[in-house]
Amino acid sequence: MAVGPTSPLTHDSRIIVVGGAGTIGSSTALHLCRRGYKNVLILDVYGFPSDRAVYGPSQSAGGSDLNKIIGSSNSGTRAEITDMTMDMWRNDPVFSEHYHEVGELSAAGEPEHIASLRVSYEAKLKHPIKSKEVEWLGTREEIVKRCPHLAKASIDGWQGIWNFKAGWGAANDAVDSVGRELKRFGVNMVFGQSGTFERPMIDPVSKRCVGVIAKDGSRYEADRVVMATGAWSPSLIDLKGQCVSKCWIVAHLELSAEEAARYRSIPVVYNEEVGFCFEPRLIKDYEPGKDRWIIKLCDEFPGYTRFMESQPFGAERPVKVSVPRSHSAHPTDTVPDEGMKRLRRVVEVMLPEFAQREFVKSYMCWCTDTADAEWLFCQHPDHPGLFLATGDSGHSFVTLPSVGHQVCDLLEGTAPADRMRKWAWRPGQGDPNHTGRGGPDPLDLGDLEGWAHGDDERAE
């Protein structure tokens, strides 16, 4: 392969999407195909579409999940692409079947959090479309009117935003739908050790990235390499501290068919001091021969890290980075004891009818945060042809239909200049405009008990 400056893209250019079975990677591959690129290769650890990953023990990418909240955003690039995103959720046949517009209550009980929600509400009122989709709920009675299932819940003092043009996405199903569409396009996909990233191929003279070397030694040449590797990104490429991988905790609560009938089509309820939950889903063959009605719920907290010594590509020596431990590789892992108490609180507050019921599953879901919650979408400053598409900050799944459009604009050099500045390589920049997650620092899993039931050195 020729060396030198990166050549212009053509529809015949060889493009590798590492992590292409995840949210950002699959969306990128889809938009590349829709723009006419004919030579796209997906590399990933686990098979895609995964079909049953969410129902069994496999849990790797953040999109391998039962439900994710879907709705408009007020912040950053996600706000700029809200109209495109929601239009695709409602009308694009790849996504529309998997979007359920049941409405969302975003609420709080603490005065400072209510004030923050009010600011968000006022911002939505200035938007020509969002202003017609929201309503302020200032009393318990108003909340129960929109969310009758909360009639016996502990919601005294709650206020918040009712958005009737929001809801939830069937996460794993939607990502699998992208996978089936990519197969229809004829996209080549490699999984297992042959699809697991080891390091980029770098031309020794030009320093240009010319492909990928996999764990088993397989070599794949390319004109562009896109690292859409989610929470694994900081342990694969030295990002100079720009991303920190964190996990949040999830639990599944099983309902009988009669109980599920009473909770069907309830709105998504999110409270930033407690957590959030969804309507029940009927999961076919959750276990062999057994269908189950499952409610997914999460608490809300700063997340957990798992700092270890690692030497990602580009680092001169081992560095401390937060390294994910996936449920796919460690299916017996659950959640820390202290986190389980918060998950129980979500049930006690929002679903008191089930306060004594045990969870049928609990696990940790990983993402990687940037300080300012904007994506890290840029070409590596030292290696032309190596592109980073990471830094989801817990918000990328809502943009599954449209995020790949943004990555394609980056690859083609057509992204607006202001977005390029937001997404740029920016070590040490921090969060000057206070748009990031904020709050206290996350606890580290190595200091917590109860979650690892296998061989993790941080838990021994």
TrEMBL record:
Its cofactor is FAD. The keyword Oxidoreductase applies. Residues 15-410 form the FAD dependent oxidoreductase domain. InterPro entries: FAD-dep_OxRdtase, FAD/NAD-bd_sf, MTOX. Residues 424-460 are annotated as: Disordered. One of its GO terms (molecular function) is saccharopine oxidase activity. Keywords: FAD, Flavoprotein, Oxidoreductase. Residues 450-460 have a biased composition (Basic and acidic residues). It holds the Pfam family DAO. Belongs to the MSOX/MTOX family. This is FAD dependent oxidoreductase domain-containing protein.
